[in-house]
Amino acid sequence: MRQVYLDYSATTPVKKEVLDEMLPYFTEKFGNPSSLYGLGLSAKSDLSIARGKVAKLIGADEREIYFTSCGTEADNWAVIGTARAKKAKGNHIITTKIEHHALLHSCEYLEKEGFEVTYLGIDRDGRISLSELESAITDKTILISIMFANNEIGSIQPIKEIGEIAKQHKIIFHTDAVQALGNVPIDVHELNIDLMSVSAHKIYGPKGVGALYIRKGVALPSFMNGGAQEIKKSWY
After folding, report:
1. Taking the model in full, what pTM does it have?
2. 169 vs 219, more confident
3. Mean pLDDT calculated for residue range 101-118
4. Quick one: three-class SS letters along the chain?
5. Which residue among 3, 49, 196, 217 sits deepest, i.e. has the most Cβ atoms within 10 Å of its Cβ?
6. Structural domains of the chain, with CATH
7. What is the pLDDT of residue 58?
């Protein structure tokens, strides 16, 4: 029986070109990039090249890209990390009712820690109201996190305008762009994005690889204890 796969919003197969690029790192180029000998230094150099390619894709700097195990980890780090970094300034977060569970569950976790979360509704086209967003902002708001493109209904939010509102109020703006990357043009500076989550398996890459863009000047605390991979805090 022939199988017809139509759920590319859930995941995609790894393209042959991607697999061919990856295979040497399972066999010949398997060095630990944190080690100090040749095999590791070569891996570190290649990792830097990969970081640069991701950065170029979204108009960022290589040093603003942090690899994660998936989009969920990137979302968790962005939201929980920002909440902990900014809790002295406020405890209010704004998001939407149609976020991915990676984001919603992070907000539920933070609510148990005493943070307040406003969940914006959407209109018939699946988009938020910018005026409702502005009305929800208080002097305690520290983070706005709104998905770029929804994984179920496909609605695309007015990201640039949301970013402008966040910038005017000096609020960190995070967007989950897992469904948007590769489907719509993204320039993080033009769109006023401070933090952005992406994932490889949505765009013909491997599962188990994600990334978090952290704008220069936005400092997040370590999300995990132990180890030094990806430094787990922004370099700036």
Report:
1. 0.94
2. 169
3. 97
4. CCCCCCCCCCCCCCCHHHHHHHCHHHHCCCCCCCCCCHHHHHHHHHHHHHHHHHHHHHCCCHHHEEEECCHHHHHHHHHHHHHHHHCCCCCEEEEECCCCHHHHHHHHHHHHCCCEEEEECCCCCCCCCHHHHHHHCCCCEEEEECCCECCCCCCECCHHHHHHHHHHCCCEEEEECCCCECCECCCCCCCCCCEEEEEHHHCCCCCCCEEEEECCCCCCCCCCCCCCCCCCCCCC
5. 196
6. 63-214 (3.40.640.10)
7. 98
